[in-house]
## 1
Amino acid sequence: MPILLLNPPSPTDLLPNREGTASFGAMSSGFLYPPHTLAVVLAVMREAGLDGALLDAVGEELSLEETVERVRAIQPELLGVYASWGTQEVDKQALQALRAAFPDMPIVAMGTGARYHGEALLAAGANHMLAGDPELAFAALAAGPLPDPGVVKANALLPEEHNFAGLIRHPQTLPRPAWDAVPWQAYGFLTLFGSRGCDDNCAYCAYVRAQGRSQRVRPPENVAEEMAWLERSFGPKRIMARDLVFAAQRAWALDVAEGLIARGFHTPWECESRPEHFDPGLLKKLARAGCTTIKIGIESGDPEELARIGRVAEERHARTYLAYLREVVAAAKGYGINVRAYVMVGLPGQTMANVQATAAYVRELRPTFFHPRPYVAYPRVLLGPGLSEEETERLRRPLLDVARDLSTEYARQHAPLRRAWRKLLLAIPD
């Protein structure tokens, strides 16, 4: 009997995006990441000689009842259930249903962002909660006799591989994900991590709480080769590099781009970083390597608010920051790179005046796409609770108008002309 890894379904109209927000997770009405974490867990199990299988009930659009029947047909000796903080209610429902159907089956709940509510997952039906990054630790737990029920810490299982918080120290030790076991086509793209963590400690950011305040990069050749492997082996329409700050180490990002160019890589891909990490020279190299989209967190277009939330040290620095953003967006679009810009709505103390200043700035900035996201006070986020849901939605309306207008403008542009212009620009020597 195999060990089964499960990405459980949702009984609601919203779907669980457990990989979202650096694995803190969220409920989504549309966009979902494929279960990268489970694909790596399975790859580690294979390397360890363990008999494993993966059931992505989200990707297969299974109901909870259908999921239970699929598990029954497989009859696993151990069930690993992927969970996250932002999906905890549907995760608990899934665990309750699984426990009712299989009273004697050992169930391990796991997920980097689930460690903040492990006791609730145990109460819902899990025998064990694996706290920390599960990619290496789950196989170590599954290989030996299971301990007494309760929370099991990744750094207790493999102390040399994990830091005190249970986060993986050296991401280059991980094998490539077992995408062959995932219905990834349902998501429309594949994902990759060139690094984990971030050296910054922004008060509003959940990402460093999930991945750690230290960027750990893989060798650039290793990253370029994995992207080429994804292209050769699976042929996805696009690839998302899910690093929190892909361009934080400029020389590293350039080396990844050079590696892709040398390999004749041609699959469109995208990356994310702080705006100040990009510059025209780096953007041109990324474009030549096939990068078609960058994601940047503006957070706010209001200098006073940027200083208040700690995005910049002082209000005068905010003006420099916003001016440089204009240069970055113009350069990226000039090289045919789409720009997805994000701001937060519902921040503590945020007013309509802050929002209107942001809306005016974004209209001037003209990123390709604009995403005003509700601020969420994830566990241990330093900024603390934000505004009420009702007030957040009220403040969000002017920003949604901007997002709609920019999307309409993009839709009116002629795609073949955009591609021809990009090709022409990239042919110009440095």
## 2
Amino acid sequence: MKYTATTDTILKKAPVQGSTLPEDQKVNVPEGKTYDIEKVIENDGLHSQVELAFDAGSWWIFLPHWDTGEAKPDVTPPTTGIVTAVFTLKQAHSPYLINGSLTFFEDGQEILKVVATSGINGFQYPGAHTIRGKGCLPPANDWKISTSGYNLATKGVEGMFYHITPDPRQGRGELGLHRDANVPGSSGCIVVRDSNTFNAEVVPLIDKIKDKQSQINLSVVYT
């Protein structure tokens, strides 16, 4: 088997966000790099552990970053009955964590609004989105939240994780929507500040629409 990186990504020794791993536990892989794969050892959500050929060892990969030669599911956004989302946050230089909001709309009508944030305290100012592992999710109107979430045991997530695409360049990737499970804030993901609200309101909403909608269009607006 041959796997080809479709974007700049990493090989890693654990199925967690790359920014949380020490440098000796990951290898940077440029877009277009191809590896010979001896076998797939196991899968964990959107991660897969593979044995590389030529005694190169076993590594975890993030499947959305790779062309594995297998047919991919259709992820074309639906054109009718869409649920969309808008994340807003007032950016500033502050030693304290700044909260914003994540609002869901159905056919243009607000159906759910929750307190959410992105980034960590001290790194939520304009332009800080370029800082890996600390800054906010980059501002854009073309983000998509996958409705095919999976349970992730990674510290800081410890629950349902919904991948946000497209993966940003400049070394930032594997971003998503999840609850704020540990140290307040995130490494660039959007986190819902109250875990009960996330589990009782956000997760059921996404579950409700996932059969008819594979993605939620997400706008990120900073003021």
## 3
Amino acid sequence: MIRTSRQLKALVRNVSRGDSAKAQIIIRNYVMERFLERLSLSQYKSNIILKGGTLVAAIVGLDNRSTLDVDATLKNLPLNEEKARKMVEDIISVPVDDGMIFEIKNVVPIIDEADYLGIRIMLETTLENMRTPLKIDFSTGDVITPREVSYSFRLLFEER
């Protein structure tokens, strides 16, 4: 498991082959992966359903259009700023021995074209001296057709 920014940068450099744009995508996806691992170990794993680019990236892998944030819909949970903050605080406090520290920077409401309530949580992730922003968008009221599916995704740099 990666525990230092030096280890992460070396692996990213190998995979990106000097392409700085691709390196940023890989780092951003690694940070999302670290959040998702904590989510998978949390009490909320059955209440948060991935959607959008996060889901596609998990299923088919990375490309240059990879998502900038985690998109999810809540199942059987109310959604407001206070509850979303508490939920993310609980998730990021799940112990994982990866050296990654998550800090909530801001929580704001969002409304899409369909007038569904959403909450955006902006975090800063830190691995030693390396900082990476992470946005998580939660919504409620999305229709899941035919139903949600439990899915295991492959980690970027680990076989487990």
## 4
Amino acid sequence: MDFELPELDRKATQAAVERELEKYRIFKHLTFEEKEAATTSHINDIGGGKGNLTSDQTGSVAIYNVDEKSIRRKYCERIERAVKRLPPMERFLIETRYMADDAEYLTDMKVYCFKFQPPISATTYDKIRWKAFYKLALDLNIARTM
């Protein structure tokens, strides 16, 4: 029985993983603004609208508020579980560079020079990051093959 790991398109996979981690950061660190039902009704003077259709705006808004919170929470938990399964160095890199509050303001150089103790080289950093991206892409089912 032979099992081979897939060959991934490095740039496309990295972009996909970075997009997912940015989405995680937005969902995690920005508050969810709940929709509110309009208190004024809209009266249509011109007949012939959507006949026999009733709308329950309050119900729709309530469902959206509950579902959207749940979707965001589950998404964040899924990303966190995937990152927790990574080896320590890869996990540290992903959490520091991509999942922290200030991740948008950190550069790769700041991470490998100042966050890693002892500091590591840029080449080592790139190797660790690619291994982490590879594993996350496969785990999150966002891998881009060649």
